[in-house]
Design goal:
Number of helices: 17
Distance between the termini: 115 Å
Low-confidence stretches: 25-29, 267-279, 324-333, 335-359
Number of strands: 17
Shape: elongated
Strand content: 15-25%
Largest sheet: 7 strands, mixed
Radius of gyration: 30 Å
Length: about 475
């Protein structure tokens, strides 16, 4: 008979043998290191440990096993399957892509032909790999006129990414923000300098190096960069896509994938110039959007393209841009008085009752004499800040700086005009207590005993010689800047 101690010994031996067998079986039976994808040829991971490679599983290539890359490949395979199904619907890649990942915290990125290079933070960030493959797909199909045009490529691949995922959850690993985070995409407030664009979450990954260089050399450059139009264009494209009936969305994407090879937009430089990365004007930005609208309307002869073009124009108008480069929301409105005075580049008259715009941020009201309180109350329903300009002559009024930078910048550009910038919610609050006194007249008279000035708690204003205007101070900040 076996002793108890002998039985325990044999049991221990059997357990060791069984465990070893299971380990050997797991090692032998493990899936080879490969990436299960129809659109990726290989993935190379470069780190301080060297370079490890995983090929497409269909190639049956034997490589040294690496647990880290194996785990990464499994995760990527799942993400890529969504793209594969999308390409099955609208058209495949002509050639598979190769991916090179770079270890470390630094943000590095490049898409060259069918090779994608990106650092680990970008690889792990939501949507960045998918967006990169969409760029390869777009470049395969785009006409030569669209090649190397960063703004067009970014905006259109934003649309296709949204079509795949249902959102714009493209996360910037540097800021932690995604493109669908709350933000403003209104015209012309969306316009930024190259330096400001570089600090935004809408910055293109390809421009990381140039951005670092530009901000270091000239951190305060204020020239307009057309690449900053991306949120306006992308959100308008997506809004038009969502407005299509569900049954027409896939046919539209197929149509676009087919027609983009011949689609073009009139030539203009709006990429990044490595010497001077963004000396464009407000007018050039307006002109570019108008050419984009026209080009979309010419996208093939299919009625669906025409329908989408109309929806796109409507989305732009909702965000402040209307044909002719005017500002419908500025996000604000331009009101012209019933005197039908003429302002260069503007309409002669707008009926306040007929304006159906959504609540906007800035608006301008040009009027000969003091504005009627009833008109101010109507405009308060449309805008948060209103620049009232008292002008009775056919004089030139430059509004560009107001829409870009605010009332002080407007005052510097227009040093002879009489104006008041009102904060409309605060103004309405004051008018409820003194409903009969015209606030502009009260400011002009500067009678500290007037009901309006007493109601807002008026304090001595600060005069700025550079703009020749006053910065108002009060308990209720119904007035910001003024010159009367």
């Amino acid at each position: 008979m076996f002793s108890l101690r002998g039985l325990q010994g044999w049991t221990s031996v059997l357990l060791v043998l069984l465990t070893g067998s299971l380990v050997i079986f797991a090692y032998v039976a493990r899936k080879p290191l490969c990436i299960d994808s129809r659109i990726v040829e290989r993935i190379d991971s470069i780190s301080d440990r060297g370079t490890v490679t995983a090929f497409r599983c269909g190639l049956h290539r034997q490589v040294d096993f690496d647990e880290v890359l194996a785990s990464e490949s499994r995760s990527l395979s799942h993400r890529l399957q969504i793209l594969e199904r999308f390409f099955d619907l609208i058209g495949p890649l002509d050639k598979r892509v190769s991916i090179t990942t770079l270890s470390g915290p630094s943000i590095r990125y490049r898409v060259q032909d069918h090779d994608i290079y990106l650092s680990e933070p970008l690889l792990k960030a939501s949507g960045q790999l998918e967006k990169s493959i969409l760029k390869v797909w777009f470049r395969e199909r785009a006409s030569s006129q669209l090649q190397n045009q960063a703004l067009i490529e970014e905006s259109l691949t934003d649309l296709f990414y949204f079509a795949i995922s249902g959102d714009l959850n493209l996360k910037d690993p540097m800021t932690g923000l995604s493109l669908d985070s709350p933000g403003q995409s209104q015209w012309p407030q969306v316009l930024k300098s190259f330096q400001s664009y570089c600090r935004s979450r809408w910055r293109s990954n390809e421009q990381l190096f140039l951005c670092g260089k530009a901000v270091e050399v000239d951190p305060d450059n204020s020239e307009i960069y057309l690449g900053s139009l991306r949120p306006l264009l992308s959100e308008s494209l997506i809004g038009a896509f969502v407005a299509l009936p569900a049954k027409e969305r896939i046919p539209f994407l197929r149509l676009f994938a087919k027609e983009v090879s011949t689609w073009s937009i009139e030539e203009q430089s709006f990429g990044v110039d490595e010497v001077e990365p963004g000396k464009q004007s407000f007018a050039e930005a307006s002109s570019f959007i108008e050419r984009w609208m026209f080009s979309l309307s010419q996208l093939g002869k299919d009625p669906l393209a025409k329908k989408y073009s109309v929806l796109f124009s409507e989305q732009l108008e909702r965000r402040g841009f209307v044909t002719g480069g005017q500002v419908a929301t500025v996000p604000g409105l331009i009101f012209y008085s019933v005197s039908q005075m003429h302002i260069p580049g503007g309409e002669d008259m707008v009926d306040l009752q007929r304006i159906g715009a959504v609540q906007s941020y800035r608006g301008v009201y040009v009027h000969c004499g003091y504005p009627e309180i009833s008109d101010l109350e109507k405009m308060a329903q449309k805008v948060e800040r209103l620049l009232y300009i008292n002008s009775c002559e056919h004089e030139e009024i430059d509004l560009e700086m107001y829409f870009q930078s605010g009332a002080e910048a407007f005052a510097r550009r227009n040093k002879s005009l009489k104006f008041v910038e009102f904060h409309m919610p605060s103004l309405l609050m004051a008018l409820r207590k003194s409903p009969t006194e015209n606030p502009a007249a009260a400011l002009a008279a500067m009678d500290l005993k007037s009901p309006f000035l007493q109601e807002v708690g008026w304090l001595p204003p600060q005069y700025h010689s550079g703009s020749k205007a006053y910065k108002a101070k009060a308990v209720i900040e119904a007035v910001d800047w003024y010159r009367l």
